[in-house]
Request: fold
Amino acid sequence: MIDLDLNKLTMGVEKRLDEIFADDLRTHNPTKIVNFKYIKHTLDTFID
Amino acid sequence: MAYINIRNKEIQLKIVYYGPGQGGKTTNLLYINKNFSEKIKSQMVSIDTYGDRTIFFDFFPFDLGQINGFDIKIQLYTVPGQSRYDTTRKLVLNGVDGIVFVADMLASMRRKNILSLNNLYENLMTYNKNIFKIPLVFQFNKVDLSQKGYPLLPKERLVNDLNRQLKRPYIIASALTGENVAVTLKRIISMTTANLKTNLN
Reply:
């Protein structure tokens, strides 16, 4: 049996995706979407 | 089920974009392909299209490189949304690890969104997969159309129709402009990775 450290792996994957999508994530960060006039009604765009 | 090769230290995740026809599944992949294919050194492949409609599927594999000693490979697929291509949808779902359900925000698409989600539920059952357990993110697509005067479904109605019981993350997006396309993909890959089984033979 082999144990994968999933928390560490997930954090590593997220970090890599942040690097790849850096420009887009900066532009389209859900916390910033409220500033976009045309979808200001979608305040909680991203809900966990 | 994710392909995990311990000897080669390789993990392969299969993500499927599901949803009603012409809802924007292929447009999501096209946006990723157009804007990030150089960074991820990959190209999208469309298997058979008719006009702007997918009649088989789109396939977009890419490699995240070495992370914690494992080579992480991602495979993105779309399914054809039209009801008559159910056999293809079932085939594409074989071995799926995570799903992006691309719902169409157009008011006229309300029924088709619901039918498509029901279809996903049934098709997952054929592989003994439970929609309540598989990583799934909703993308409410085409928000850009509100600017053009098209009647859109309010977010509350979409949540009530599709996500009342599932209670999954949902993201309002425009695949056409790229709004939240990368956010959606990052979210599903992250959820799918976290869902890998901890103990592997």
Notes: The radius of gyration of chain B is 16 Å. The helical segments of chain B are 25-40, 86-93, 110-125, 155-162, 181-194. The first helix of chain B runs from residue 25 to 40. Residues 1 and 95 of chain B are 5 Å apart (CA to CA).
